[in-house]
Amino acid sequence: MLAIRPPMTALSVSPWKLLVSCLFFGLAVNFNAVADSDASIIRSHAIAMHGTPKYAPDFERFDYTSAAAVKGGKVKLSAIGTFDSLNPFIPKGTPATGLGLLYDTLTTRSYDEPFTEYGLLAEALEYPEDRSWIIYHLNPNARFHDGHPVTAEDVAFTLDVLKEKGNPFYRYYYANIKSVEALGKHKVKFTFDGKDNRELALITGQLSILPKHFWETRDFSKSTLESPLGSGPYRIKAMDPGHSLTLERNPDYWANDLPVNRGIYNYGEIRYDYYRDRNVEFEAFKAGEFDYRVENNSKTWATGYEIDAVKQGRIQKVQIAHSNPTGMQGYLFNLRRNIFQSPAIREAISYAFDFEWSNKNLFYGQYQRTNSYFSNSDLASSGLPQGEELAILEKFRAQLPEEIFTTPFEAPSTDGSGNNRKNLRSAKKILDRAGYKVRDNTLYTPDGKTPIEFEILLVAPAFERITNPFVKNLQRLGIKANVRIVDASQYINRTRSFDFDMIIQSIGQSTSPGNEQRDFWHSSAADIEGSRNVAGIKDPVVDQLVELVISAPNRESLVTRTRALDRVLLSKHLVVPQWHTTHHRLAYWDKFQQPAVSTSYDPGYLMGFMTWWIDDKKLAALKGRAN
């Protein structure tokens, strides 16, 4: 499962594209996981990946929302880069931030459970115990913004057009859907290909439903600046291409009063202003040009908020702990490049990155080293494989490096002094064993013909201060690395087309990994431009482990199989692991009220912010203090 929903574009710079509508089904239907006369058929208001849903059909609201929330007011947010498209579903153009708020999905997840979906456009779900198919009963009140009803035909059209013309991600994510069939105006059935894939019954509900009557007269494969038609809580009010996008809350939103929508999507208007530079963006925030900021820069968090507005309480600076898997961030190798074909060179390069020095001198000790693709979760591998995990890996022993069975993975570490000689000596031994030679202070491939030289492509200038010491250590190994910073549009285009040597990549994970792993790691995705197999890995063992993860019959099996996949991925040295934190770092002008309880499983604290609301008294006081 994805952290929130399948992304509408694989490499979008927009965080808000992932927001989903959190709505409940109509009260006319009151199923609560009740068995049909056929004991194998379940009818329900919700579906959990494992176990049972937390919330019963008659619940009032999610626990992380508030009955005191007030609708209305304006909020200003920021985005970096630019945009030239309002179609976020295709691998063309740079989509605007916030477009996910225009669309509703069949179901929506709760953010205080690992992975449970509740009805949104669908007021009830029907599926067999083996989850070989699922039927969605659509809410007859569901409407697009133009008043047109949302029908089963729209659902079928959406799946077909996304798989045919949408981002390559969709073809992998929905690969095991055998068919989609409209059984009536408000009844649609997805049939799966018979493989053991429990997650499909949930992820079909994550489809952002598109209006057939709107798109059948337009070319879905092309980027566009025409305002799209959705059924979600917001619609586009104004747009200045590349500079700003303003959304307004739809006063006629069909799901406005559904129980799971209570206390969510409270802002009357949301405006996104674009900045080309993060330093300029931060200065704009301090000047009050926008209202809310998720801080991703440790130096800024430690030193940048020593200003009067914070000391006086006009800007609030808080950390909120979370339970999200933090995934993997690191310097990612493009395995399509000949110089990176050998695991030895990739492993040796990892010894040149001194995390401990960086954490001490650049990050103010705020981060932890990442040693797993599923860090901060029970899915992360550790120690040596045992039990069922060992049994799984034993089947592939002849195709795996022996250290998987003998040596626990741990990213190279130092004492933080800046003296990295020990690790560089270790790297030199790895290179010597693999036949690499140094000539005239330059490292060459074992055949002596090709110097090891590559480009590190960056989109955020803040990473230059982190990368430069890494480059200097590489030079001591005879490796020449050049740092190049490009704008967001160029970065997106180059990464989509795999036109890079090394980038800093963040590979997010969820509490319930599944079908999206194909797009991350499967051989079939490696040569598809726009896929999320950005590293270009093609490995038959990884392919088989991905399928095992997807077909896990229960939570215990999912954890075991994911740990096996994690262990094999780590052995491939696809990235030089970087770091993670287990808190959201937020800064905001003191104009908001918040629920008493925060979301637990909320990547980026996206949905958490949508449960806040503007307090008129605080806003007036803030304006008074500013004057």
Overall description:
The protein is of the alpha+beta class and 627 residues long. The protein has three domains: 16-235, Periplasmic binding protein-like II (D-Maltodextrin-Binding Protein, domain 2); 265-320 and 582-626, no CATH class; 328-580, Roll (Dipeptide-binding Protein, domain 3), CATH 3.10.105.10. Helices cover 26% and strands 20% of the residues. The chain has 19 helices and 27 strands. The strands form eight sheets. The protein has a six-stranded antiparallel β-sheet, with helices on one face. A hairpin with a 5-residue loop joins β1 (34-35) and β2 (41-44). α8 runs antiparallel to α12.
The outline comes out as: globular
Extract low-pLDDT stretches.
Answer: 1-37
Coarse structural class: alpha+beta
What kind of oligomer do you see? Answer: single chain
- The CATH architecture designation of the largest domain is Roll
Which fold name fills CATH's third level, the topology of the largest domain?
Dipeptide-binding Protein, domain 3
Secondary-structure map:
Layout: E1 34-35, E2 41-44, E3 46-48, E4 74-80, E5 107-109, E6 116-119, E7 122-128, E8 133-138, H1 152-165, H2 168-173, E9 177-184, E10 187-192, H3 200-203, H4 212-215, E11 234-240, E12 244-249, E13 269-275, H5 278-286, E14 292-294, H6 298-304, H7 308-311, E15 315-321, E16 328-333, H8 343-350, H9 355-361, E17 368-369, H10 387-394, H11 403-406, H12 421-433, E18 437-439, E19 442-444, E20 453-458, H13 464-476, E21 480-485, H14 488-496, E22 502-507, H15 516-521, H16 540-550, H17 555-571, E23 575-577, E24 579-580, E25 583-589, E26 592-593, H18 606-610, E27 613-614, H19 616-626
Parallel strand pairs: 4-13, 20-21, 20-22
Antiparallel strand pairs: 1-2, 2-7, 3-6, 5-6, 7-8, 8-10, 9-10, 11-12, 12-13, 14-25, 15-25, 16-22, 16-23, 17-24, 18-19, 26-27
Helix pairs in contact: 8-12, 10-17, 16-17
